[in-house]
Design goal:
The protein contains 9 helices and 8 strands. It is an alpha+beta fold. Among the domains are: 118 residues, no CATH class; 107 residues. The strands form 2 sheets. It has a 4-stranded antiparallel sheet with strand order 1-2-3-4, with helices on one face. The termini are far apart. Keywords: Coiled coil.
Length: 373
């Protein structure tokens, strides 16, 4: 017999069928609604677009602010440039006024000396100037002011020592030349070199016609002392007839060559066992110190003339370290900046001694402080 219940009436059918809860009847499922997905996506897209627009507006505002700031900086730069130019012009005007006042003061003093009879006629003799009758005004000026250079070359060379203490000008001779010229020759002497100079002057207006250094051996000596000085000498000062810069630069060269030689000599005396040069000469620009079994230190002191406008000779200091190797030795520039800094604070000799002591623990017997700055 079958165990399945017999369904014979409508009530049986209703009682056996599953029923939905009352609160769920006719309630739509929002999560499965066919229109919910596209609406949410459109809303997100609109929100993203709005955000991008706001960011773009912010960037545009920032760009505008930067542009305004740039324009302000440009205006400020132009204003500063104008101020600098105005200050430069004002400075030039003040300097010109000062030069004019100084020149006027000298003229007033000369006039006063002339009027009181205190002028030194021997030191400032009346120059011999050939003038025509039409130039009576110029002649009167020459006679009254009397400010031309003296024709007494012995006095002029003696007075030059006041301005050029490291050189002396000797053996001056004056000879009359052809075609209205005058030849003046003299020798510039210092402790370490001498240079014979010949100049030709036009007598009519005392203009400088030419400068020559006829002794080739003396030029060779100059090139050994400083190659850059020699180059400026033969390419600039001599052909351009710059006699003032020539004399000034020779005085500057003499001073620096003397300091370098004194320093080299003192270093050899202080470190005789490790220096390779027993007797430095005037052209010696380097010393080699054997600091240990595998290394050597080379001290280089070059003399340079890089500023041809002023004629001031300058020092260039270097330190080279050589590592000795049976196969291949190496060279490096180590310590140059230290030496330059120390020499500016003290002097070159002290700088080398301090560097040897602190870097290689090499001492010395004594140091003459202040020998060569």
């Amino acid at each position: 017999m079958s165990n399945i219940q017999d369904i014979t009436s409508l009530s049986d059918i209703l009682n056996t069928s599953p029923r939905e809860p009352k609160d769920e009847i006719n309630v739509p499922n929002r999560s499965t609604s066919p229109g919910a997905g596209p609406l949410e996506s459109n809303r997100d897209a609109a929100l993203n677009a709005h955000t991008q627009v706001e960011e773009l507006i912010a960037l545009q505002e920032e760009k505008s602010a930067l542009t305004v700031n740039k324009d302000d900086l440009i205006k400020k730069r132009e204003s500063i440039k104008d101020e600098i130019e105005q200050l430069r012009l004002k400075t030039k005007t003040l300097l010109d006024q000062r030069k004019h006042r100084q020149a006027q003061r000298k003229l007033d003093m000369l006039e006063e000396d002339k009027s009181t009879g205190k002028g030194n006629e021997k030191a400032l003799p009346t120059p011999v100037v050939e003038v025509s009758s039409e130039d009576s005004d110029d002649k009167d000026i020459f006679r009254r002011l009397n400010v031309l250079p003296s024709d007494n070359w012995d006095d002029r060379l003696k007075f030059s020592k006041m301005f050029y203490e490291h050189i002396s000008l000797t053996n001056a001779t004056v000879q009359e030349g052809d075609e209205g010229t005058r030849e003046i020759s003299f020798t510039v002497r210092s402790e370490n070199f001498s240079v014979f100079i010949r100049i030709i002057i036009q007598k009519l207006d005392n203009s400088l016609v030419s400068i020559s250094l006829p002794n080739s051996n003396e030029l060779t000596t100059i090139s050994l002392l400083s190659l850059s000085f020699y180059s400026v000498l033969v390419k600039n000062y001599i052909p351009q007839r710059k006699i003032n810069l020539l004399i000034y630069s020779l005085n500057s060269l003499a001073e620096l060559v003397s300091k370098r030689l004194q320093t080299m000599t003192e270093l050899v005396r202080l470190y005789p066992s490790i220096v390779d040069t027993p007797s430095p000469q005037r052209g010696t620009n380097s010393l080699t110190f054997k600091v240990n079994d595998v290394s050597s230190m080379v001290f280089v002191w070059n003399i340079l003339l890089e500023d041809s406008i002023t004629g001031e000779v300058e020092t260039e200091l270097k330190l080279l370290t050589i590592k000795h190797d049976p196969i291949q030795s190496t060279t490096s520039e180590v310590g140059s900046d230290v030496i330059v800094h120390l020499s500016n604070e003290t002097d070159v000799l002290t700088a080398i001694c301090v560097y040897l002591k602190n870097t290689y623990q090499i001492g010395m017997e004594e140091v003459s402080i202040g020998l060569a700055k």
